[in-house]
């Protein structure tokens, strides 16, 4: 019987111990370990955390607690390391993106502009704040050096072309002078043939001047005295193939200053040529001139097909002078690009509009600073001036100029 009592007592003790351990395990799992994990995530060391919590009475539970604390501490350390690395990488990427954006928007355009001004690659690289990141810096340096080489080659080719064209221009001017001399020396039986040669040479002069201006060169002729507007119109019309279709309506007695006369003449010749080329070959091109308070207004009207909106926008863009890249020009259609360069150089306004004749009209405003006080030429000057202008377009002598009574205000 004593044995049975002892057994019951032992069973009771074991049950109590089991209950105590169960409660301790529950407290460990539900309170101690979460608290340890929270403190560790806050950055407290494992030793300090374990010292602050009551240790379990069971050695195994104590070992579990220490192992748990060490594991969580290591995991927290790894997470913090990963977060630091992620933050550093993100900041580096943001800095690289900012640097790339500044490089694309500011640095490279400025470097390209300096290269096109003629500076060397070494000078531009020394003046340029290149990106620090090798992935951007290395290709940027290579690009600047390659572009500098390309610009030098382009400038050399352009200079050589302009020099060669200047020789052709000089030869054309000499041929015109020789033809004028022949027209005076020979009789009527060859005058017509000489006039045709004169006109063909004038067209050649227009084409060489066109190319020279696009290459950065100059026109083949210059005038040291004012030229009457009527003579400007005749000279311009005489340089184009379809000069016989051009009808001039000029009532002004104003003259264009000598420094601008050749440029204005070339500009008007290009616009007349464009109007004649894009209108039916049997239709006339009418040119009207008016005096206005802001200067002289020249209107060129054709009766061809109305220009489409897209073509109108391209033409307006071309005559602004902002198109400076020769690679953007379309084939042989270079006239409007020349108009744009001359208009920009002399401050001439060129605008397109629908023509009252059904085609396209071009309105050209020659500002006051291009005009000179008109002076009636003396009799001995008249012939010489007429011949010189005819020499740049001898066929202009066949272009009729209507008086003020025959002219009309273009609509």
From TrEMBL:
<feature type="domain" description="Histidine kinase/HSP90-like ATPase">
    <location>
        <begin position="259"/>
        <end position="370"/>
    </location>
</feature>
<protein>
    <recommendedName>
        <fullName>histidine kinase</fullName>
        <ecNumber>2.7.13.3</ecNumber>
    </recommendedName>
</protein>
<feature type="region of interest" description="Disordered">
    <location>
        <begin position="377"/>
        <end position="411"/>
    </location>
</feature>
<feature type="compositionally biased region" description="Polar residues">
    <location>
        <begin position="401"/>
        <end position="411"/>
    </location>
</feature>
<dbReference type="GO" id="GO:0000160">
    <property type="term" value="P:phosphorelay signal transduction system"/>
</dbReference>
<keyword id="KW-0808">Transferase</keyword>
<dbReference type="InterPro" id="IPR036890">
    <property type="entry name" value="HATPase_C_sf"/>
</dbReference>
<feature type="coiled-coil region">
    <location>
        <begin position="79"/>
        <end position="106"/>
    </location>
</feature>
<dbReference type="GO" id="GO:0004673">
    <property type="term" value="F:protein histidine kinase activity"/>
</dbReference>
<dbReference type="InterPro" id="IPR003594">
    <property type="entry name" value="HATPase_dom"/>
</dbReference>
<keyword id="KW-0418">Kinase</keyword>
<dbReference type="GO" id="GO:0005886">
    <property type="term" value="C:plasma membrane"/>
</dbReference>
<keyword id="KW-0597">Phosphoprotein</keyword>
<keyword id="KW-0175">Coiled coil</keyword>
<dbReference type="Pfam" id="PF02518">
    <property type="entry name" value="HATPase_c"/>
</dbReference>
<dbReference type="InterPro" id="IPR050428">
    <property type="entry name" value="TCS_sensor_his_kinase"/>
</dbReference>
């Amino acid at each position: 019987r004593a044995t049975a009592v002892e057994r019951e007592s032992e069973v009771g003790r074991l049950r109590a111990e089991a209950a105590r351990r169960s409660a301790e395990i529950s407290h460990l799992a539900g309170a101690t370990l979460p608290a340890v994990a929270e403190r560790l995530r806050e950055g407290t060391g494992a030793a300090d955390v374990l010292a602050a919590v009551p240790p379990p009475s069971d050695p195994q539970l104590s070992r579990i607690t220490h192992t748990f604390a060490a594991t969580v501490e290591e995991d927290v350390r790894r997470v913090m390391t990963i977060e630091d690395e992620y933050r550093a990488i993100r900041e580096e990427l943001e800095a690289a993106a900012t640097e790339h954006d500044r490089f694309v928007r500011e640095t490279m355009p400025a470097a390209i502009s300096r290269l096109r001004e003629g500076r060397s690659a070494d000078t531009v690289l020394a003046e340029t704040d290149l990106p620090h990141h090798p992935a951007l810096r290395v290709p940027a340096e290579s690009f600047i050096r390659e572009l500098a080489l390309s610009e030098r080659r382009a400038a050399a080719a352009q200079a050589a072309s302009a020099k060669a064209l200047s020789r052709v221009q000089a030869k054309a001017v000499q041929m015109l002078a020789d033809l004028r001399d022949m027209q005076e020396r020979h009789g009527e039986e060859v005058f017509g043939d000489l006039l045709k040669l004169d006109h063909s040479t004038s067209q050649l002069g227009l084409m060489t001047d066109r190319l020279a201006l696009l290459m950065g060169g100059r026109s083949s002729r210059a005038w040291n005295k004012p030229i009457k507007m009527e003579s400007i119109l005749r000279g311009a019309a005489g340089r184009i193939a379809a000069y016989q279709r051009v009808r001039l309506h000029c009532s002004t007695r104003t003259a264009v200053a000598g420094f601008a006369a050749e440029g204005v003449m070339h500009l008007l010749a290009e616009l007349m040529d464009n109007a004649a080329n894009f209108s039916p070959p049997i239709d006339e091109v009418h040119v009207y001139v008016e005096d206005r308070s802001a200067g002289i207004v020249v209107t060129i009207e054709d009766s061809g097909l109305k220009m489409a909106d897209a073509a109108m926008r391209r033409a307006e863009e071309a005559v602004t002078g902002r198109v400076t890249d020769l690679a953007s020009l379309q084939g042989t259609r270079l006239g409007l690009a020349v108009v744009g360069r001359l208009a920009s150089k002399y401050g001439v306004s060129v605008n397109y509009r629908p023509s009252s004749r059904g085609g396209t009209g071009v309105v050209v405003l020659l500002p006051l600073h291009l005009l000179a006080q008109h002076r009636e030429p003396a009799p001995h000057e008249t012939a010489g001036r007429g011949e010189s202008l005819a020499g740049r377009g001898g066929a202009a002598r066949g272009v009729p100029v209507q008086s003020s009574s025959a002219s009309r205000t273009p609509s």
